[in-house]
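Long-time lurker. I teach an intro course on protein structure, and each term I like to show students one example going from raw sequence to a predicted 3D structure in token notation. This year I'd like something fresh instead of my usual example. Would anyone be willing to generate the tokens for the chain below so I can use it in lecture? Attribution to the forum is fine with me.
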Amino acid sequence: MTDGPVATLDEIRSYFNGKADAYDDVDAQPYWVLSDELLWSALTEYVLPRLPEDFRFLDAGGGTGRWSHRFATARPDATGVLYDLTPAMFGHARAKAERYGYADRLACREGDLGRVGEELAGEGFDLIFNFHNVLGFVDSPTDVIKQLAGLLNPGGLLVSFVPSRWHAAWFNLTLGQTAEAGRNLEGRGRFTDTMPDMHLFTPEQLRAMNEDAGLRVDLTTGFPVLLYPGYQETQISGSTRSLAELLGDRAAFDEVFALERGLLGTADAVGRGNNLFVLASRPAR
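-- Reply from a regular --
Happy to contribute to a lecture. Here you go:
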């Protein structure tokens, strides 16, 4: 069971306040470029075709708006709400929206995901997404999934992209941190000693949480599965040398992407994913 406090709101807010100004520098790290392109590929294939015209989205824990930006620019008909705990993070999202001309379509709201159902009560969304460590930092992922499910319009989609406990254990073992790897397998842990503790997940656990919230699980996958990040990729800037050399070559990047992309829908590969991807939907009335 992963539910229960992992860090205080002040600890989480302080952690992300310290990263806000440089957070988008991850766009320069070749490994995360690969991961982002795989995530966008999954969204393009499995999510975007199912959304209605003029759809409304909620970027739950959206930070600097990296993914709100993708949706808002790919679909000029879309409107959305970016909801985040840290004003220093979503201040960058607001600036990005102004710079790229969609500020009238994206509202930025400060709030705690533990109360999102109450704070956004009465609003409806066709798409809700939470990416990377967002669900890991809430006290009760089960409760947050239920609250998010309650904000979906009939037929609406909930997409979660979250840290895998098995990958975290592998990562910490490569650093010789056997005790931390043991914690990871129990569903808790972290990747660096400067980050707060967080929840870690398994595919089956994610399926159960979504089903318990009354949603239908349409897809469970995970990626990247063939190439994992090194310690340097846990930092805002810099890259592990071997990854930078491999992925810094455009032809090699494209080959790796093609290999990874070919495994997106392969159920047997899900558990190897660095992050786990779950697409669930609210049944239409």
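Some talking points for your students: DSSP finds eleven helices and nine strands in the chain. The chain has a mean pLDDT of 92.
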